[in-house]
Write a sequence for this structure.
C-alpha cells in the first residue's frame, strides 16, 4: 500500500466440493466481508483443485485462502496462508447469512461505499499464552492490511470484524458490523437534520420549536453507553467533526458464524498437524497418512476430509453427550435447520 | 442688425437676469432701434466674442434703452433710470439692485405639490389657485406701495425664522420634561417583571428535564432486571464455574452488540486485541542470508528433528515458530528440498544467462568479421573492376576494323 509501504494481503474465498445453496451464499458473504482485497467474482469450476489456485495466487499476489467445505456433520472453514503457510480448520457450528440478518433487523443498512475499505479487526478472549489461539489472532490480524495510525483517515474505517472466544465452550463468535458515529448532546431532530441530507417532515408539528423540543432533550439512548462516547481525532462523516464528542454505534451487516478451532496444520491443507481439538494422538493415523502424501491432499477434493470426520464424530458425540446431556442430533444444533438467527 | 446672433443672445440673457426685464421686451426694442448706436454697440466687430465685463456693459446699455422706451415702467425700471451715476459703494445697495427672486433662496415653507397623485378635480383646483396667485403676485409686484427691497425681504425672513426657532425650543423642553419623568417611573417596573418570569421558566425547565430522566432510569432498571433474571436461570451452572475474567466477557456480550472502543474513560480489557497497526516504521532487516546458508541451516534442522532425543521438542517448537512467523507474513525457509530446488533454479538461470551472453558475444564477433569480409571483398571487386575497365579501354584502341586485337604471339610459340 502507498501509506505503509507494506504488502497488502489479498485473499481467495473458495468452496471445495459441491456446496449447498446456503454455503454458496455464505461464501459470497465472506467475499463481501473481505472486500476490497479479494476476488469478488472468482469463477471456480469443479475441476479446479487447490493446486491450481495456489499456482495462480503467486503472480496475483494473493496471500490467504479461505476455504469452505461441507460434510455430513457440519460445514468447515479453513483459513490458510499461501503457499506454505499454516492452515487453521474451523468447524462451523452455526451460521446465518447477511440476508437473514437483513430480515431480522428493522433498519438494515449496508451501502456499497462501506465495502470500499477493509474492515477493522477486534479479537477478544484469545489468551496469547495458548499457542493455537495466538496463531488465530495473528492470522486474522494479518488477513487485513496494516493501518498506519498517523496517516489513516478515520472516515475510511467503516466496518469492523469482531471475534470473541469463549473459554468454556471453546467457541469463536464471528460478527461483522458497520460503524457509524452520532453527535452527542443534541436532540434527535437536530441530530438527524445534521447527519442526513433529507429535509425533515414538519407536517405533524404545530410550531417550529416543537421540532427541537418534541423528541426530548438529548437522545434516548444517550444515557446508555458512556463508554461508547469518544472524542473524535478526525472528522467522521456528516455531523461528526473532529474534537467533538460522538457516540460510536455498530449496525450488524454480513454473516454471523459460530466457529470452533478444530485443527492447525503446518502446510496449506497439508503437512504435520500441530494442534487438534480432539487430540492429535487419537487422529494420528490420518495425520501420518497426510504427512506421507502431502501433495495428494491438495489434489483430492473431499474424500480425505470425510474420512477424517467419521473419526471425529465419535469424539464429537461423546463430547456433546458429556456437556449438553442430550444425544447429538436431537437438539437444535442441526445444520439443515439453520435459518434461525441466534440471539445474543 | 449689426450685432451677430451669439452676442445678442448672451447680452439679452444677462440683461434679463440683472434687471428683471423680459426677453420679449428686449427683442422688440432692439428691432426698433436697429439704427441707434451707443458707444459699446458701434465698436463691436461682428463675430468677436465678448468678455463678461463687456457683456455687462452692453447689458446696462440695453437696459437703458429699454427702460427709457417702455410704456409702463416697473419700480425696477424707475429705480434704474434714477440710479446714481457712481457705482454703489455699499454692498447692501448692490444687493438691493437684485430682485429677491434671484438673490434669496427659495422659501422652504412653500410645499411642492405632487401633481401625479392628484385627481382631475384636484388638479383643476391647483391650477386655479396658481393662476390666482400669479395674478396677485404680479399686481403686488407692480404696486409701488407694496414695494419691498431685497434687504427688507431678507430681514423679514430672518425674523420669522427666529420666532419659529424659539417656539420649537420651548416645545422641545416641554416634551423633554414630560418624557424624563415618565421614563424614570416606567423602567424599573418593566425590568423586574421580566426577570421574574425568565427565572421561573428556567426552574420549570430544569424540573421537567430531571423528571424525564428519572423516569427513563426507572424503566431501564426494570428492563435490565428482567433480562438478568432470565439469563441467570439459563446459565446458573456455568456462572458458578467461571472466573472473574469470563464474567466480564459475558457482560460485554449482553450489551447490545456494542464492543467498547478504547476511549479515555474505559480501560481496555487485557485480552482484547486489534488489527495490525503500524506505529513506528521499523527498519527492514538487512541481514538476508544467502540461500546456501539457509540450506545448511535447514538441513541441520532436519537432522535435529530426526534425532530421537530432543527431536520432538525441536520439531514442535520450530513448527509453531514457523507457523507464527508465516502467519505474520515473514518467509521461513525450513524445507531443504525446496531450498535445493531454488538453488538449482538459481544456478540454472545463471548458467543460461552466461551461455546467452557468450553466444551473443560470439555472434557479435562473428558478425563483425563477416562484415569486414564483405567489405574487403567489395573493395577488391571495385579495384578489379577498375582494372578490367582500363584493360578494356586499352584493347578498344587496338580493335581496328580488320584486326583481331593485341598481338598474342606466334601459334607455335611456347607459352
Amino acid at each position: 500500500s502507498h501509506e505503509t509501504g507494506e504488502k497488502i494481503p489479498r485473499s481467495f474465498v473458495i468452496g471445495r466440493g459441491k456446496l449447498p445453496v446456503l454455503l454458496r451464499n455464505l461464501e459470497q458473504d465472506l467475499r463481501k466481508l473481505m472486500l476490497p482485497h479479494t476476488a469478488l467474482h472468482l469463477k471456480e469450476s469443479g475441476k479446479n483443485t487447490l493446486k491450481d489456485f495456489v499456482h495462480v495466487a503467486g503472480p496475483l499476489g494473493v496471500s490467504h485462502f479461505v476455504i469452505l467445505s461441507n460434510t455430513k456433520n457440519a460445514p468447515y472453514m479453513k483459513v490458510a496462508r499461501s503457499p506454505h503457510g499454516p492452515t487453521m480448520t474451523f468447524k462451523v457450528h452455526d451460521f446465518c447469512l447477511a440476508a437473514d440478518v437483513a430480515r431480522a433487523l428493522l433498519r438494515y443498512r449496508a451501502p456499497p461505499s462501506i465495502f470500499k475499505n477493509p474492515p477493522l479487526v477486534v479479537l477478544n478472549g484469545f489468551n496469547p499464552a495458548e499457542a493455537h489461539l495466538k496463531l488465530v489472532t495473528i492470522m486474522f490480524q494479518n488477513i487485513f492490511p496494516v493501518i498506519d495510525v498517523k496517516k489513516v483517515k478515520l472516515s475510511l474505517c467503516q466496518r469492523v470484524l469482531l471475534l470473541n472466544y469463549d473459554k468454556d465452550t471453546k467457541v469463536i463468535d464471528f460478527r461483522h458490523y458497520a460503524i457509524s458515529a452520532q453527535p452527542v448532546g443534541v436532540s434527535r431532530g437536530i441530530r438527524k437534520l445534521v447527519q442526513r441530507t433529507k429535509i425533515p417532515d414538519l407536517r405533524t408539528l404545530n410550531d417550529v420549536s416543537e421540532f427541537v423540543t418534541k423528541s426530548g432533550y438529548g437522545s434516548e439512548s444517550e444515557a446508555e453507553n458512556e463508554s461508547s462516547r469518544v472524542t473524535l481525532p478526525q472528522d467522521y462523516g456528516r455531523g461528526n467533526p473532529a474534537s467533538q464528542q460522538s457516540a460510536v454505534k455498530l449496525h450488524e451487516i454480513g454473516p454471523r458464524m459460530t466457529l470452533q478451532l478444530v485443527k492447525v496444520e503446518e502446510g496449506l491443507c497439508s503437512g504435520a498437524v500441530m494442534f487438534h481439538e480432539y487430540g492429535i494422538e487419537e487422529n494420528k493415523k490420518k495425520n501420518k497418512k497426510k504427512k506421507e502424501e502431502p501433495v495428494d491432499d491438495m489434489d483430492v477434493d473431499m474424500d480425505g476430509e470425510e474420512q477424517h470426520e467419521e473419526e471425529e464424530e465419535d469424539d464429537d458425540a461423546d463430547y456433546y453427550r458429556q456437556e449438553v446431556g442430550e444425544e447429538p442430533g436431537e437438539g437444535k444444533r442441526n445444520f439443515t435447520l439453520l435459518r434461525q438467527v441466534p440471539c445474543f | 442688425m449689426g450685432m451677430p446672433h451669439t452676442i445678442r443672445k448672451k447680452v439679452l440673457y444677462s440683461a434679463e437676469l440683472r434687471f428683471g426685464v423680459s426677453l420679449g421686451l428686449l427683442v422688440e426694442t432692439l428691432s426698433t432701434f436697429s439704427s441707434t448706436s451707443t458707444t459699446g454697440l458701434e465698436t463691436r466687430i461682428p463675430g468677436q466674442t465678448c468678455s463678461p465685463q463687456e457683456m455687462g456693459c452692453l447689458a446696462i446699455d440695453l437696459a437703458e434703452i429699454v427702460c427709457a422706451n417702455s410704456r409702463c415702467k416697473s419700480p425696477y425700471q424707475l429705480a434704474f433710470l434714477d440710479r446714481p451715476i457712481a457705482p454703489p459703494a455699499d454692498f447692501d445697495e448692490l444687493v438691493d439692485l437684485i430682485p429677491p427672486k434671484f438673490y434669496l433662496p427659495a422659501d422652504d415653507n412653500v410645499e411642492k405639490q405632487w401633481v401625479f397623485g392628484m385627481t382631475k378635480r384636484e388638479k383643476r383646483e391647483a391650477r386655479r389657485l396658481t393662476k390666482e396667485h400669479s395674478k396677485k403676485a404680479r399686481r403686488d409686484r407692480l404696486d409701488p406701495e407694496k414695494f419691498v427691497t431685497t434687504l427688507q425681504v431678507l430681514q423679514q425672513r430672518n425674523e420669522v425664522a427666529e420666532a419659529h426657532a424659539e417656539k420649537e425650543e420651548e416645545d422641545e423642553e416641554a416634551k423633554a420634561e414630560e418624557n424624563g419623568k415618565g421614563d424614570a417611573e416606567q423602567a424599573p417596573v418593566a425590568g423586574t417583571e421580566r426577570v421574574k418570569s425568565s427565572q421561573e421558566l428556567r426552574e420549570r425547565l430544569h424540573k421537567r428535564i430531571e423528571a424525564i430522566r428519572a423516569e427513563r432510569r426507572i424503566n431501564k432498571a426494570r428492563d435490565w432486571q428482567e433480562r438478568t433474571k432470565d439469563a441467570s436461570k439459563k446459565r446458573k451452572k456455568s456462572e458458578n464455574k467461571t472466573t472473574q475474567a469470563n464474567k466480564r466477557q459475558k457482560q460485554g456480550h449482553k450489551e447490545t452488540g456494542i464492543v467498547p472502543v478504547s476511549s479515555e474513560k474505559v480501560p481496555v480489557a487485557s485480552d482484547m486485541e486489534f488489527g495490525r497497526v503500524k506505529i513506528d516504521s521499523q527498519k527492514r532487516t538487512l541481514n538476508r542470508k544467502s540461500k546456501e546458508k539457509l540450506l545448511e541451516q535447514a538441513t541441520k534442522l532436519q537432522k535435529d528433528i530426526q534425532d530421537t532425543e530432543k527431536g520432538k521438542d525441536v520439531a514442535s517448537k520450530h513448527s509453531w515458530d514457523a507457523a507464527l512467523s508465516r502467519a505474520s507474513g515473514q518467509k521461513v525457509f525450513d524445507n531443504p528440498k525446496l531450498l535445493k530446488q531454488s538453488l538449482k533454479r538459481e544456478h540454472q538461470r545463471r548458467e543460461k544467462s552466461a551461455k546467452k551472453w557468450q553466444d551473443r558475444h560470439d555472434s557479435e564477433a562473428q558478425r563483425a568479421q563477416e562484415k569486414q569480409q564483405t567489405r574487403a571483398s567489395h573493395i577488391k571487386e571495385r579495384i578489379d573492376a577498375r582494372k578490367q575497365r582500363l584493360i578494356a579501354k586499352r584493347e578498344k584502341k587496338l580493335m581496328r576494323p580488320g584486326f583481331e586485337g593485341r598481338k598474342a604471339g606466334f601459334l607455335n610459340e611456347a607459352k
Summary: Confidence is low (pLDDT under 50) at residues 31-46, 182-191, 250-266 of chain B. The first helix of chain B runs from residue 5 to 19. DSSP finds 14 helices and two strands in chain B. The longest strand of chain B covers residues 272-274.
